[in-house]
Design goal:
Elements (H helix, E strand, L loop, with lengths): L1 H26 L4 H19 L12 H20 L7 H8 L2 H12 L6 H28 L4 H39 L3 H10 L9 H12 L3 E3 L6 E3 H26 L2 H22 L6 H17 L2 H19 L1
Antiparallel strand pairs: 1-2
Helix pairs in contact: 1-10, 1-11, 2-3, 2-8, 2-10, 3-7, 3-8, 4-11, 5-7, 6-7, 6-12
Length: 332
């Protein structure tokens, strides 16, 4: 029952979070900082009350290690959201972030000296190819959309390249953070709730560096069209309502993934998250009518086939199907 609930939380929470984020970004493409701050503040407050018991519970993992982890986590979160201000479409943003397996494998080979099977390398080639196809097609769309002025088109394309560079850096930084977390958990044990709290609580002072941008977007949000909140019947600016929905759904998504990691194997978690990304992508394309060519679909399909191959879903399904017959033969 807990597993079913966790999967429901992941799909409902994460898909709703993507929708609310796109509603925000469509109105104010540069609102990533205020969105990130609101998410961090909400999750930090929840953790401060329910996990740390108002600061009375001491952390199991030393704070100095969390400072390193938090620096990487804060950087990744801010850059991922801020990249949307550089002509990065939401579908490309989601596809690009699906390349985390590539970054994890590359850094795993370099830092941890890991070695992988031939199927793993093939899956990474497929994922890289799919992302490359989608990126090239998106680059062509940026060029076509700005054909009117050569200078304006060049400026727009350079901004798009900066956005791609930001997503690439965030991808590698996220993978490095994952390796750092892995070493910490091996040394001190898994403390996911604690890590979730400190990863969102400790970076809060860092948002002072972004306070001007956050304040400007607070003004813009307050000047947006009013909307009536269901049930309560109170009228609030619609952008604040979208932000509230985004923060709540982000929390639901994270909690769902946390419950899933405690109830299921890592393979199941990866499969659920991958399917969630695929559904979010399809919904974003169809509901918001984002430009998506046949080549985009080809690239997306290759990415997800490579992801499923990496997680060895096919062999797991075959083993599950063969399981009963193997047991019957042994019984005979």
């Amino acid at each position: 029952m807990a597993t079913v609930l966790a999967i429901a939380l992941v799909f409902v929470g994460c898909c709703s979070n993507v929708v609310s984020l796109e509603l925000l970004v469509r109105q104010f493409p540069g609102c990533g900082n205020i969105v990130t701050f609101a998410q961090f503040l909400f999750i930090a407050l929840e953790g401060f009350i329910f996990h740390s018991n108002f600061g009375r519970k001491k952390p199991t993992i030393p704070i100095r290690n969390y400072v390193i982890m938090v620096t990487m986590f804060f950087t990744v979160s801010v850059i991922n959201n801020y990249a949307l201000n550089f002509n990065i479409a939401m579908p490309l943003h989601m596809i690009f972030r699906s390349g985390s397996l590539i970054a994890n494998m590359i850094l795993g080979i370099i830092i941890l000296k890991k070695r992988y099977s031939a199927s793993k390398y093939l899956s990474i080639v497929l994922i890289s190819t799919g992302i490359f196809i989608c990126t090239i097609m998106s680059a062509r769309q940026v060029n076509v959309a700005t054909e009117g002025s050569e200078d304006q088109g060049f400026y727009t394309f350079v901004r798009w390249l900066i956005g791609i560079a930001m997503l690439t850096f965030a991808l590698l930084m996220s993978a490095r953070m994952g390796i750092f977390q892995e070493t910490l958990y091996k040394q001190y044990g898994k403390h996911s709730k604690e890590a979730l709290f400190y990863n969102h609580f400790l970076p809060l002072p860092g948002f002072l560096l972004l306070s001007t941008d956050i304040y400007q977007h607070c003004i813009h949000f307050s000047q947006s069209a009013p909307a009536v909140v269901p049930v309560v019947g109170v009228s609030v600016p619609i952008m604040w309502l979208y932000l509230l929905i985004n923060v709540i759904t982000q929390y639901v998504c994270i909690r769902g993934v946390f419950v899933l990691t405690t109830e299921c194997a890592s393979l199941t978690v990866t499969l659920v998250v991958t399917l969630r990304k695929f559904l979010s992508l399809i919904f974003s394309i169809m509901y918001f009518q984002n430009p998506f060519t046949t080549w985009h679909w080809v690239g997306t399909g290759v990415v997800f086939v490579g992801t499923l191959m990496y997680t060895e879903v096919w062999s797991s399904v075959q083993s599950a199907l063969r399981g009963p017959s193997v047991k019957e033969k042994k019984a005979e």
